[in-house]
Amino acid sequence: MPRLIPDSGPQRVLAASNFVYTVGSGLYLTAGVLYFTQAVHLPAGQVGAGLGVAGVLSLLLGVAVGRLADVRGARGIYAGTLLVQALATAGFLLADGFWAFLCAVCAAGGAKSAGLAARSPLIRRHGGARPQEFRSYLRAVTNLGISLGALLAGWAVQVGTLPAYRLLVLGNAVAFVAAAVVLRLLPVSPPAPAAHGPRGSALRDRPYLLLTALDGVMAIQFKVLTVAIPLWIVGFTTAPHWVVSATMLTGTVLVVAFQVRAGRGVVSPKAGGLAYRRAGLAFLLSCALVPLSAGVPAGIAVAVLLGAVVVHTAGELWHSAAGFEVSFALAPERATGQYLGVFGLGAGLAEAVGPALLIALCVSWGRPGWYVVGALFLVTGLLAPLAVRRAEHTGGAAGAAVRGEAAV
Q: What is the pTM of this model?
């Protein structure tokens, strides 16, 4: 198990704020889709479409807010995004139809994307000699918080009543406010000197954009545990509904235990490319296992699902470590927010197309769709080392500047 209390004060503040935030996120990640489909009674297709629209609208917001955090100071910008996310999440309680749901998830998704970009300069400033390692540490803390949230969400899923689901939504919103309050303990740092080059230099770095696109395709894997598997368990297996929380808890506990260790071996962009490839293989195997849980007794279904989650989480560890390494190593320090905001476009792509894609393939189509999704992850993982090599050796002017600063 990694150390859960870092040495420096600023790192402790970031970790504490992140922990509070992710306890709330664990409530929504586990039961969010089920809240809208089972409690609000929106069709699964509408939920997937709404999440997709929210993802599209938030794609470029991260880039703009990331640049703003670079030049105006990241702490205040990040805290503001947390408060907006809290208000938007509370708005879920009023979402009794598709359009209200769409407005709420668009606001929440945009604030989340902006917050991830605004946080990146803080991680680089306070993360020590290798902010990639501190980012892995934060992800371990993240999953500890998510696991606690998943335990609470399991109660709501098992009870299945509207008041129970609403209580979890309210708890999620309160957690975001508390995370913003904790963040006020972080020392105020002056903005970094402005990076040289055109305002859109990160968007002009084509090798970096290619890596962003590949990471975005692979980031759809995060929606497998939060969208595809919960709907599959409820609609296609005889497993009890509490297994939804069990799958989430299994994955998060493994990430808490092994994310820092997985990141220690990924110390260069080349190693990151190879980690992407291993992740693709693991996701293919896990996607092949999940359909085997349909049409079998409950005990066998539970065992198959948990086994698939273990394999999937191994891929998740490699994918995350790879993303942390290439995104930071190939980004100039003076434009961290902008470049990490661009890299966040990949996660935005997953938010935009992931839910609808997984519902269409894995839920509506069924067993064959799982195999198609697994093949998509495999191909992406095989292409990643080639893209990393191109980013290191054949980038344009923007990419050369990035690599020059990263080597200092």
A: 0.77
CA distance 355 to 42: 14
**CB of 13 within 8 A of CB of 5?**
no
The per-residue DSSP string of 77-143 comes to: HHHHHHHHHHHHHHGGGG--SHHHHHHHHHHHHHHHHHHHHHHHHHHHHHS-S-HHHHHHHHHHHHH
**Cβ distance 215 to 271 under 8 Å?**
no
pLDDT-based confidence at 297, cuts 50/70/90? very high
Q: Which residue has the tokens 């065992």?
A: 303
User: Taking every pair of C-alpha atoms in the chain, what is the biggest distance, in angstroms?
Assistant: 62
Task: Please report, for the domain that includes residue 384, its CATH number.
Answer: 1.20.1250.20
The full 3-state SS of 278-346, as one line of letters, equals HHHHHHHHHHHHHHHHCCCCHHHHHHHHHHHHHHHHHHHHHHHHHHHHHHHHCCCHHHHHHHHHHHHHH
Per-residue pLDDT for 375 more than 50? yes
Residue 162's domain comprises 9-185+201-407
Domain count, the chain: 1
